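Severity: low
Component: inverse-folding endpoint
Summary: output formatting inconsistent between runs
Steps to reproduce: submit the following structure tokens with default settings.
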């Protein structure tokens, strides 16, 4: 038997007004999904924004019931029919619909497809891997997209300012720390100005109020950013593009403000700005491995610790509500065995 969070939808909404429940359950290994060829003893998982949606049911990310949520985990293989993996291998998983259509990582055990797994890089503990989690890995995909762009354009770190939006959140906090560690001048945009010291501690050189970016703005604005990591979308992304310097780039990965993109083509056709779309869920293996490898080397563990708080599996349920309310700072790791 093992413990896991379990999301269920009651068939009769009249007797259960919410109709949607996430509870801590005791499950049998025989209940793990058959559609999987590797069984993993999970050591650490996390709470990402999408996990908040799955736990609360506030958006329909869970597609089949009952389902164990958790879009990522790190742990050790206990059994494998997959040629790449054997018992004892240390692995990390993100995406591929795990925690949405396939049972996920907020659990002590998981069974997944071996093709979805990445080897835990040397020097990275399972806990630190989940301190980064999907949010940190996505931040690294954004940073690597910008790095490729800057390398091709001959942009050197520190030459101009880089903007990170949603800076106090998971993607944002890791992006601030990673970009600062690479020597960039990072401007952090946040709605939580009381977190300015935290953001400066991660390496931000300036903290700005997100209100400066979140309202409708002009199609072209004063050029400021050589690059942007945006986890917010909507007017914030439009304004970020409109104030990106000639030849600069924006990596868009999130929708915390909204899924809309009320922008004009002006920054792209008049300033040669490039907009990179970043998807972590179906990213190819080579890109995943490169991101995890750079995460393993790229950040001082003291900074990672400053970003991270820890909860138990039972506490993860309340944490799902909290992340959607914008009240989680940085990253939350879940000790599934506590
Ligand atoms: P968090 O909740 O940790 O962070 C989101 C941050 O966005 C908040 O902390 C807040 O930052 C800011 N924010 C929230 N609401 C608003 C608003 N109404 N207007 C402006 N800013 C707002 O989530 P994550 O960092 O885990 O994820 C961020 C986004 O990235 C989510 O939309 C998520 O779905 C997406 N994502 C996408 C992935 C992909 O594959 N493309 C992978 C992972 C995440 P502050 O308080 O500093 O203002």
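Observed output (run 2 of 3):
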């Amino acid at each position: 038997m093992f413990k896991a969070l379990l999301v269920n939808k009651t068939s009769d909404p009249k007797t259960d007004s919410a109709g949607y429940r996430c509870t801590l359950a005791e499950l049998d290994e025989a209940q793990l999904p058959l559609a999987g060829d590797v069984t993993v003893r999970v050591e650490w998982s996390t709470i990402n924004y999408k996990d908040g949606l799955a736990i609360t049911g506030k958006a329909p990310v869970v597609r089949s019931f009952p389902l164990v949520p958790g879009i990522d985990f790190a742990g050790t293989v206990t059994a494998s029919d997959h040629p790449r993996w054997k018992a004892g291998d240390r692995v990390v998983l993100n995406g591929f619909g795990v925690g949405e259509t396939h049972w996920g990582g907020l659990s002590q055990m998981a069974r997944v497809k071996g093709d979805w797994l990445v080897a835990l890089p040397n020097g990275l503990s399972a806990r630190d891997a989940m301190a980064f989690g999907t949010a940190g890995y996505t931040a690294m995909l954004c940073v690597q997209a910008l790095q490729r762009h800057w390398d091709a354009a001959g942009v050197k770190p520190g030459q101009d300012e880089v903007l990170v939006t949603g800076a106090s959140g998971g993607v944002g906090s890791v992006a601030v720390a990673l970009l600062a560690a690479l020597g960039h001048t990072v401007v952090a945009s946040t709605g939580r100005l009381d977190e300015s010291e935290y953001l400066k501690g991660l390496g931000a050189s300036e903290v700005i109020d997100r209100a400066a970016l979140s309202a409708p703005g002009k199609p072209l604005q004063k050029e400021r950013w050589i690059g942007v990591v945006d986890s917010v979308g909507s007017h914030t992304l439009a304004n970020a593009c409109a104030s990106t310097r000639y030849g600069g780039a924006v990596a868009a990965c999130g929708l915390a403000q909204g899924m809309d993109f009320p922008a004009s083509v002006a920054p792209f056709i008049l300033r040669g700005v490039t907009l990179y779309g970043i998807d972590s869920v179906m990213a190819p293996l080579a890109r995943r491995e490169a991101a995890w490898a750079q995460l393993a080397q790229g950040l001082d563990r003291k900074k990672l610790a400053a970003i991270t708080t820890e909860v138990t599996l039972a506490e993860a349920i309340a944490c799902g509500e909290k992340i959607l309310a914008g009240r989680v700072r940085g990253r939350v790791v879940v000790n599934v065995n506590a």
